[in-house]
Amino acid sequence: MSAADTTTAKVPPTxxxxxxxxxxxxxxxxxxxxxxATPWLLLAPCLLVLALVMGYPxxxxxxxxxxxFGQSQLWGFQPAESVGFDNFTGxxxxxxxxxxxxxxxxxxxxxxxxxxxxGMLIALLLQRVSGWVKTLVNIxxxxxxxxxxxxxxxxxxxLFDADYGILNxxxxxxxxxxxxxxxxxxxGPQGLAVxxxxxxxxxxxxxxxxxxxxxxxxxxxxxEAARLDGAGAWGVFRYVTLPILKPIIVMLTTLSVIWDMGVxxxxxxxxxxxxxxxxxILTTYxxxxxxxxxxxGQGSAIALITVLLLLGVVAVYMRQMLKIGEVE
Amino acid sequence: MSAVASExxxxxxxxxxxxxxxxxxxxxxxxxxxxxxxxxWMLNTAFKPxxxxxxxxxxxxxxxxxxxxxxxxLHIADFWGPVGxxxxxxxxxxxxxxxVGMLAALAISRFAFRGRKIVIVxxxxxxxxxxxxxxxxxxxxxxxxxxxxxxxxxxxxYLTFILPxxxxxxxxxxxxxxxxxxEAAMVDGCSxxxxxVRVVFPLLAPGMVATSVYGFIxxxxxxxxxxxxxxxxxxxxxxxxxxxxxxxxxxxxxxxAGATMMALPIVALxxxxxxKMAAGLTAGAVKG
Lengths: 328, 288
Prior knowledge:
The structure holds two protein chains of two kinds.
Chain A: H1 3-10, H2 38-65, E1 67-68, H3 71-74, E2 81-82, H4 86-92, H5 95-128, H6 131-146, H7 149-159, H8 166-172, H9 188-215, H10 220-228, H11 233-261, H12 265-270, H13 282-292, H14 296-326
Antiparallel strand pairs in A: 1-2
Helix pairs in contact in A: 2-14, 4-14, 5-9, 5-11, 6-9, 7-9, 9-11, 10-11, 11-14, 13-14
Chain B: H1 2-10, H2 14-46, H3 50-53, H4 68-76, H5 80-110, H6 116-128, H7 131-145, H8 151-175, H9 179-187, H10 192-221, H11 224-229, H12 237-242, H13 252-281
Helix pairs in contact in B: 2-13, 4-13, 5-8, 5-10, 6-8, 8-10, 9-10, 10-13
């Protein structure tokens, strides 16, 4: 990478597309085909930036996974040497790694399922409430959605604080419950459940608002017809609403899986930058391996395995998006 | 839940329907209370006198309003430096992202060319790579380029997650503008560029504003890259908040004041654009 590449990316290209030769408009074509070079000129800056800060690092991630790369390689004292599959065998042969994989999958699955189910229920509820209630719920949802993740994380830390957290105080007012001083983060499962709550709280609004937009597109006549044919509320939902919403649901679910497998700041900040072994998920595990143990090779191998785990989900998402992209 | 729902749907009589409506409203208010509570508690704590914040039996209602926590938050550590840096980075990312993204969005929505589909797949695929997985090579790349601990390096990396999203959303807005308008302008003697500048661009402006604001929010909220690619002395606002502690340990009242200062402008911006964004994102998503 030369310096020239970076300077072009840093300065916003103010280039206007060159004035194309005068074209005779052909209203019949689906898309006009200007000069063959024009679209590529328009795309060039975007593709350049993505190639530099995404494409190249992605390639580097793969090569790093097959190298021994530690402190001395970082400072350039020693060249990075290729070690074949050593990083992978090291990672895959580690019992702790498999615990982390399972923990991550369970955590992400929990987040996705709760997000989608709660989101769907709230979207359906919003169809049935009065206007003013709808407005109130929307305000609460958008406020939660717009909250920076770090802010939300610190707020949840405060809500669940062992000594002065409002949650322990309120729960302790219930007869027979004594939770003042209860540390929610003393055990991994309990702490991760709190973090799951935080992730779901932040993710539900987007799902609700997108599904609500989708629900307005479900023709009322269809639902009415189903009801006349004797379908109950569940039947109408199952056989009319759901099939129509399917593209949106597929899109939201795949996005949620990708986001929830990539959760990092929530765990990292909740545990003050040093997640304990019981809190490690793939992202924090890879980070620790690279930046705490300074084994960048193994850290990259773990990150690469994470990406590979997601490939199937990504394929589904892409198919859906391309279908949408074709509807033009 | 479904039992209630079916009962409500079968309730044919007017009074039954009204009763079920108020039942739904109650449920809606419950959702409002639960979803809004963390935000409320942040504000409540931020404006509380500090001694009330560490009451083991706190009152759920506001106890009194004071701005002490805010002044404490501003004085505990440099606040304006990180905020200024976050602002600079976010604005630069949006300025570059919208110009570059706009050109790319035009290319994929208004031109038929060989390789168009591959480009779309590529741009979408980039969005799918978890950013966390990329931090190691990105860190090494910036190290090699001499861009570690420089805001320009952070701006460059933020473009990776702003661009795909910007291109895709703007594409949604452009597709919604009828081609016939451009064609009519061209029949009237506009060049292709002229038709775009005079016809499409004005119609696109609201969408561009919404996309910019959303991109700004994304950049402002980012944590991991800001943490890893800048040193302590150049930290951004999110990192500032996550490091918030005093010599007495974590003081939650000023911390919530800091959180409020970071979140309020963002939530306000978000309220302005979210409706528009939802429209852009779902453009063409539902076609019966």
